[in-house]
């Protein structure tokens, strides 16, 4: 009798990481920055706001604080600029005089800022555990293996990678090496159109490998570029050859990586239908990281910047339900008190990694700078950074690249 334990071809590949039962052990090698290497002020310190103000004033123009829209109000209060990841990437590059950039956002954003800023500038992430579950769904080894599958299928020379900003610097570097571009939810349509043009066009058999958010890729290809859902296939990195046959890869126009946002992927069509039943005349606006079916039912789709602008331009008294991160929805309520704004889905929480940046961590990094210590710097490997910069600069060179909303 054979004692072989080899898995059948169709069986999912086992994870290389040990499976840890919650609360029963931890693998520090696989957890980034869980321990804070310093003395954080207690969150209950009533002087935290005053301490943050004093430290920022002492640093003056030497520090530039960027705040993503999904950050807590207590952090946004100290941001010099707020925006989505596209705007913040532009802004990071626009302040070469500031030696320190404190990035209140998540890890991949700070990496992009490090890539786009000068070697004399240091990017700081207040909590190194502020990662992104979507970015973690595409590891560079998996993406390199997937590219080998495209080579084996004989289509790699007709594929351009388009990678969402929400990805590691290594994946951005892969994109640069293969002639692709980065995109954000603000410019995904422009980026996809550019990529298809580079391949000679959809009709000529051109294809895009879209990483790592399948929903943004599908929504943009189908809703904005007029492709059919049948033109899209989903490459599952946990299955042999992505779970796809060479014929499926050859027939596809969009090869979507099987990744998603743990927040936006949870909004449901049932929640949209319930909002329409319960709120007469409601307008439903959602982020394009939501599932295709949810976007199909919505009245408006937009990046965080576009959601803010759309609500700002609406007549007073308009009822909205909004499908994006809860910190931003709460802030929209205070920004536009004349509008009636509700959150789309009662079962969806804050983005837990965005929320890791809080006032104690911000005070800690600012006061450390005042004391002459740089804590939590984000430094991208120079070779990775070189190719990631190629892909990011391709994005900034797209039509409208310097004036997107
Ligand atoms: S909201 Fe989603 S995509 Fe954005 S940082 Fe959180 S998990 Fe990542």
CATH superfamily of the largest domain: NadA-like
Q: Indicate the mean pLDDT.
A: 90
Instruction: Report the sheet-strand fraction.
Output: 5-15%
CATH architecture of the largest domain: 3-Layer(aba) Sandwich
Question: Can you characterise this structure?
Answer:
The protein has 15 helices and 13 strands. With 405 residues, the chain is of the alpha/beta class. It has 3 domains: 26-132 and 353-374, Rossmann fold (3-Layer(aba) Sandwich); 135-261 and 384-397, 3-Layer(aba) Sandwich (Rossmann fold), CATH 3.40.50; 264-343, NadA-like (Rossmann fold, 3-Layer(aba) Sandwich). The strands form 3 sheets. A 5-stranded parallel beta sheet has the order 6-5-7-9-8, with helices on both faces. Strands 2-1-3-4 form a 4-stranded parallel beta sheet, with helices on both faces. The structure holds iron/sulfur cluster. The site of iron/sulfur cluster (SF4) has 13 residues, from loops.
Short descriptors:
Rossmann fold; 4-stranded parallel beta sheet; 15 helices; 13% strand; globular; single chain; alpha/beta; disordered N terminus; binds iron/sulfur cluster; 405 residues; 3 domains; 5-stranded parallel beta sheet
């Amino acid at each position: 009798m054979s004692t072989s334990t080899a898995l059948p071809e169709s069986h999912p590949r086992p994870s290389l990481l040990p499976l840890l039962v919650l609360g029963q052990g931890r693998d520090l090698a696989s957890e980034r920055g869980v321990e804070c290497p310093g003395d954080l002020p207690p969150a209950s310190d009533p002087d935290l706001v005053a301490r943050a103000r004093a430290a920022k004033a002492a640093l003056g123009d030497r520090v530039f604080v960027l705040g993503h829209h999904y950050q807590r109000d207590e952090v946004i209060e100290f941001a010099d600029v707020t925006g989505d990841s596209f705007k913040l990437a532009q802004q990071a590059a626009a302040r070469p005089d500031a030696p320190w950039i404190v990035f209140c956002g998540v890890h991949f954003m700070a990496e992009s800022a490090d890539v786009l800023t000068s070697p004399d500038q240091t990017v700081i992430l207040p909590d190194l555990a502020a990662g992104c579950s979507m970015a973690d769904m595409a590891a560079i080894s998996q993406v390199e293996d997937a590219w080998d599958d495209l080579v084996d299928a004989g289509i790699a020379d007709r594929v351009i990678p388009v990678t969402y900003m929400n990805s590691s610097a290594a994946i951005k570097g892969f994109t640069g090496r293969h002639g692709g571009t980065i995109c954000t939810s603000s410019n995904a349509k422009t980026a996809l159109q550019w990529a298809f043009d580079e391949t000679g066009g959809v009709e000529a058999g051109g294809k895009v490998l879209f990483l790592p958010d399948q929903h943004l890729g599908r929504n943009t290809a189908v809703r904005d570029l007029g492709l059919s859902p049948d033109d899209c296939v989903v490459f599952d990195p946990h299955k042999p050859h992505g779970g796809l046959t060479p014929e499926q890869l050859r027939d596809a126009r969009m090869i979507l990586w099987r990744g998603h946002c743990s927040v936006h992927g949870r909004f449901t069509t049932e929640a949209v239908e319930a909002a329409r039943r319960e709120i007469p005349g409601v307008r439903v606006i959602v982020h394009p990281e939501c599932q295709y079916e949810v976007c199909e039912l919505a009245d408006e789709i937009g990046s965080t910047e576009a959601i803010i602008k759309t609500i700002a331009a609406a007549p007073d008294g308009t009822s909205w339900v909004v499908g994006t991160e809860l910190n931003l929805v709460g802030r929209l309520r205070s920004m536009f008190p004349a509008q009636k704004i509700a959150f789309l889905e009662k079962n969806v929480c804050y983005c837990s990694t965005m929320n890791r940046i809080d006032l104690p961590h911000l005070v800690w990094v600012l006061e450390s700078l005042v004391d002459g210590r740089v804590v939590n710097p984000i430094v991208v490997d120079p070779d990775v950074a070189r190719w990631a910069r190629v892909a990011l600069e391709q994005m900034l060179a797209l039509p409208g690249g310097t004036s997107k909303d």
